[in-house]
Amino acid sequence: MSIQWRSVRKQGVSFRVGFCVRKGLGLAMGMVPGFAKTKRKKHWVVFEVNVAGPEAWQGILNNVENLQKAFGCENAEIEVGAHGKGLGLIEKSNEAMQERLKQISDAGVIFAACENTMRRMNVKKADLMPFAITVDSGVDEVVRKQEAGWSYIKAGS
Fold it and tell me: For position 41, what pLDDT does the model report?
C-alpha cells in the first residue's frame, strides 16, 4: 500500500489530496488545504468600527496594517465598516488621519460608511473622504460578509 499525493484546484483554492493505493484500488484519504505550492491563501477580513476618537482609530489602523504585512496586500482583502460613533474615522473633518487613511486605502483596503448612521447624523457623501464607499447598513454589511466566509474583527471596545 502506498500514498500518492496530487494537487487539486477547487473554487480557486489549491488542495493536496492523498490517495491510498492498494492493489489497484484508489481511495481518497483526505484533502488538506494550503499544501499546494501553486497559490497562497486569500484572506477576507471585515473590521467593524463603532467607537470614536483618534486613539481607538490609530489602534484599528495598526491592526489593518499588521494584517497586510502578515498576509501581503495581494493575499488580503480588507474592509473597514464605520457606523455609529466610528463614522468620524472616515469623515473629511478627521484631517489628522487623512493621509494615513489615504495610504491604507491606496494599498487596497475598503472604507465603508453606514448610510443609516449617515442619515441619523445628517452626514452627506460629500462629507466623507473621497475614497470611502457607502453601504446601506453597517451591521447588515458585517452579517453579509460573515455569511460569505469573511473573518470578523470587532474594533474598539
Answer: 85
Query: In terms of CATH architecture, what is 43-155?
Result: 3-Layer(aba) Sandwich (3.40)
| Sequence spans of domains, the chain | 2-33, 43-155
Residue range 128-152: mean pLDDT, rounded: 96
- Nearby residues of 43 by Cβ (< 8 Å), 6 or more positions away: 67, 71, 75, 76, 77, 151
Specify the pLDDT at position 38.
42
In sequence order, which ranges of the chain are alpha helices (DSSP H)? 54-71, 98-106, 115-120, 138-147
Alpha-carbon span 53 to 82, nearest angstrom: 13
**Nine cell digits for residue 74:** 495581494
Judge whether residue 5 has pLDDT over 60. Answer: no
- Give, for 5, the enclosing helix (H) or strand (E): strand 2-10
What secondary structure letter does DSSP report for 136?
S
Q: In the sheet that 110-114 helps form, which strands lie side by side, from edge to edge?
A: 133-135, 110-114, 76-82, 43-49, 151-155
Q: Are β-strands 25-33 and 13-22 bridged in parallel, bridged antiparallel, or unpaired?
A: antiparallel
Mean pLDDT, all residues of the chain: 83
Residue 39 has pLDDT above 90, yes or no: no
Nearest residue to 138 via CA among 108, 123, 109, 118: 118
